[in-house]
C-alpha cells in the first residue's frame, strides 16, 4: 500500500537509488521505504543500482514506469569477465593495492584510503580489478604486508590461507566499484557500506551529488555480525577496517546525510560528518493505510513481524515468552515474516529453543503474510526484540494500527514510541516478559497506549511528511550541484573501538 503521491514539480532531478540486499529484489523495512519514496514522486526519473547476492534474484516489487532502469551488482555470482593485468599494468595495480591495504592495516596510513579506493575504481572500470584480486600476486602482497612487525595483525601470525580468504572477501566486497555510475542527477544511498561505492565513485569522477540515508548503522551491524563469523582475527580486522574507513569516507563526501533518528545522528557526527550536513528525516506511514486494527484476539497473544534474522533478537523474545507462559498458560506467540536465504539455521535454532523451554506448541512461525496489518491485528500486544534497529517500520505501523507495543531500547525506538508503549533493554528476557505481562493483564492500559500510539504517528510520522522532506532535498541538491575538488585529504583517524562503543542501539 502506498500513501498519497505529491503533485509533479517541473524540472525534477533524476535520482539513482543505491541499495544493498533490499529494493527492488526483496521485502522488508528498507524496501518498503524505497517503494514509498518512488511511488510518492511520479515526476522524478529513478534508476536503481542494486547490490545483490547472486544476481539471480527476481524483482519483488512491481516497478512504476518512472523507474527507468535497474542494474544488479551481484556480490557472489560469477565474476565479471576480464583478464588479470600483466607487466607494467600489474605493477601499477599492485602499487595502488598496497596503498589501499596499508590504509586498512596501519592507522598511520589511513589518510591514504580514499586515494587507494578511487585508484582501484579505475581498475574496476577497465575490467581488471576482479581478475587482479583473484590472481596470486594480490594474495601474496597481503601475506607480506600484514606480517610487518609494527602492525597489530602480525601478532596473530596470519597465514597464506588467511591472506587468500581475506583477498577473496575483498574481491567480492569491491565489485560495486565496477557499476556504471551516473554523471548527472543525484545518487542516493539508502544504507551505508557497499551500497555507497557507486555513489562515491560518481562523486569522485563527475561531482555527482551524493546523498546518504542511514536507517540503521551499517558499520555497527558489521561489528555485531562479525563476532559470529568463522574467520581468524586478521581477516576480521582487515574487513572491519574496510567498513570503518568506507563509513568515514561516505560521511565526508556526502552532500547531506539523512539519518532516520537522533541515535544514528550521533554516530554520524562521531564519524566526522559536519552537523550542518545532517538532517534527521523520520520514516513515515500512511495512517489511512494502517487504520485501527479492531478487536483483539480472544486468546492472550503476543505478535511479532519482521525477517527471521539474528539481529532481530528472536531468542530473547522466545525466552521472554516462556516466562510469560508460566504466568498465563494459554498465551500464544505468533511470529510473522520470511526467513532470508542463509537464515534457515537461525530459524531452526529458534524452534529448538522454544522446544527446549517447553513452549513449542505455543510458538508459531507464520511466514510472510499477505497483508502485514493482519500480523499486528493478531496480537493483543506487538513485540519488537531487535538488538539493532534504525527507526523500524513494523513499530510505527503497529502504532498506527492502535496496538500497544513492547520494544527494545535500540536505535530510534525510544524516539518513535515516546510514552505510548513500553521500552525495555535489549537481550533482557526478564524485563521483556514483565512488560508483556503488564500489558496482557491490563486491557485499559493497552487501549490507552494504543490510542496514544496512533495519535503520535498521525502527528509526527506520516508518509506525506517523509516524501515532502526528500522532495525538497532532491531539488536542493540539484540546484547546488557543482564540481568538487578531488583532493583525498581525510580527517584524523577515528579509533575502531570509539566507533564500536555505540551505546544501547
From TrEMBL:
Molecular function via GO: glycosyltransferase activity
Record keywords: Transferase
Listed Gene3D superfamilies: Glycogen Phosphorylase B
Domain DUF3492, residue spans: 14-276
Domain of life: Bacteria
InterPro entries given in the database record: DUF3492, PelF-like
PANTHER family: BLL3647 PROTEIN, GLYCOSYLTRANSFERASE
Name of the protein in its database record: D-inositol 3-phosphate glycosyltransferase
Organism: Streptomyces cinnamoneus (Streptoverticillium cinnamoneum)
Amino acid at each position: 500500500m502506498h500513501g498519497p503521491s505529491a503533485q509533479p514539480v517541473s524540472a525534477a532531478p533524476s535520482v539513482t537509488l543505491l541499495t544493498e540486499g533490499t529494493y527492488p529484489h526483496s521485502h522488508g523495512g528498507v524496501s518498503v521505504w524505497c517503494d514509498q519514496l518512488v511511488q510518492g514522486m511520479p515526476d522524478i526519473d529513478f534508476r536503481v543500482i542494486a547490490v545483490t547476492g547472486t544476481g539471480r534474484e527476481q524483482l519483488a516489487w512491481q516497478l512504476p514506469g518512472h523507474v527507468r532502469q535497474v542494474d544488479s551488482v551481484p556480490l557472489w555470482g560469477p565474476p565479471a569477465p576480464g583478464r588479470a593485468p600483466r607487466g607494467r599494468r600489474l605493477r601499477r595495480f599492485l602499487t595502488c593495492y598496497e596503498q589501499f591495504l596499508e590504509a586498512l592495516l596501519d592507522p598511520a596510513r589511513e589518510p591514504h584510503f580514499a586515494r587507494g579506493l578511487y585508484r582501484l575504481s579505475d581498475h574496476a572500470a577497465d575490467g581488471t580489478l576482479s581478475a587482479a584480486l583473484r590472481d596470486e600476486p594480490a594474495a601474496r602482497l597481503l601475506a607480506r604486508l600484514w606480517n610487518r612487525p609494527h602492525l597489530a595483525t602480525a601478532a596473530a601470525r596470519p597465514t597464506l590461507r588467511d591472506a587468500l580468504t581475506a583477498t577473496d572477501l575483498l574481491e567480492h566486497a569491491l565489485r560495486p566499484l565496477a557499476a556504471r555510475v551516473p554523471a548527472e542527477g543525484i545518487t542516493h544511498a539508502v544504507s551505508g557500506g557497499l551500497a555507497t561505492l557507486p555513489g562515491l565513485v560518481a562523486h569522485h569522477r563527475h561531482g555527482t551529488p551524493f546523498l546518504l540515508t542511514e536507517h540503521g548503522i551499517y558499520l555497527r551491524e558489521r561489528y555485531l555480525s562479525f563476532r559470529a563469523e568463522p574467520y581468524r582475527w586478521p581477516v576480521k580486522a582487515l574487513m572491519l577496517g574496510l567498513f570503518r574507513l568506507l563509513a568515514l569516507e561516505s560521511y565526508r563526501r556526502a552532500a547531506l546525510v539523512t539519518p532516520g533518528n537522533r541515535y544514528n545522528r550521533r554516530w554520524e557526527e562521531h564519524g566526522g560528518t559536519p552537523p550542518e550536513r545532517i538532517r534527521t528525516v523520520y520514516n513515515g506511514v500512511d495512517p489511512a493505510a494502517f487504520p485501527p486494527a479492531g478487536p483483539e484476539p480472544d486468546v492472550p497473544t503476543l505478535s511479532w513481524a519482521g525477517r527471521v534474522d539474528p539481529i532481530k533478537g528472536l531468542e530473547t523474545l522466545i525466552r521472554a515468552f516462556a516466562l510469560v507462559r508460566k504466568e498465563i498458560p494459554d498465551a500464544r506467540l505468533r511470529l510473522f515474516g520470511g526467513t532470508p536465504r542463509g537464515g534457515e539455521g537461525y530459524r531452526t535454532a529458534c524452534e529448538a529453543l522454544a522446544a527446549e523451554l517447553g513452549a513449542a506448541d505455543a510458538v508459531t512461525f507464520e511466514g510472510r503474510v499477505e497483508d502485514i496489518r493482519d500480523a499486528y491485528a493478531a496480537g493483543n500486544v506487538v513485540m519488537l526484540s531487535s538488538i539493532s534497529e534504525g527507526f523500524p517500520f513494523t513499530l510505527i505501523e503497529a502504532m498506527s494500527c492502535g496496538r500497544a507495543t513492547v520494544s527494545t531500547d535500540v536505535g530510534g525506538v525510544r524516539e518513535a514510541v515516546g510514552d505510548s508503549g513500553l521500552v525495555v533493554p535489549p537481550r533482557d528476557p526478564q524485563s521483556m516478559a514483565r512488560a508483556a505481562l503488564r500489558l496482557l493483564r491490563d486491557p485499559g492500559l493497552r487501549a490507552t497506549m494504543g490510542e496514544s500510539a496512533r495519535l503520535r504517528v498521525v502527528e509526527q510520522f506520516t508518509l506525506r511528511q517523509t516524501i515532502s522532506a526528500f522532495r525538497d532535498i532532491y531539488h536542493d541538491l540539484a540546484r547546488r550541484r557543482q564540481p568538487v575538488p578531488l583532493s583525498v585529504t581525510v580527517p584524523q583517524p577515528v579509533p575502531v573501538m570509539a566507533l564500536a562503543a555505540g551505546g544501547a542501539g
